[in-house]
Amino acid sequence: MGRGNLDNHRHILGICFILTNALSLVAAVFAFGAIFIRSAMFHESTTSQDLTLFWLIAGFGAGCALLMGLPGIIAGVGLLKRRRWSRLLSLIVGVIGLTNLPLGTLLGIYAIWFYAQPGSERVLE
To answer: Could you say which DSSP state residue 122 is in?
Structure first.
């Protein structure tokens, strides 16, 4: 595969990393908003201990979504800017994302395929 073709795949992969991980961030913000509304609606009928536990669990879930989304966006931006460090980061995020059906799985397979191509390391120079 030629360098120009691999460069196109690098660009597409960077955009895909940004878009799919931005979806994770949007989902985290939406979930946190829904949790906030839910706790405001049932605030008076819930004990303070239950409400605290609810916020801890909700915060943990939203925090995990944020922690999973940010590295993918950073990797995507690095790929678009041809940063060498983005190769390892995008491969790690892609492999971890294999468990995130269906978009993460497709993106992870695409990232692994891209980095398996001879000459893929040269498009980041």
So the answer is: G
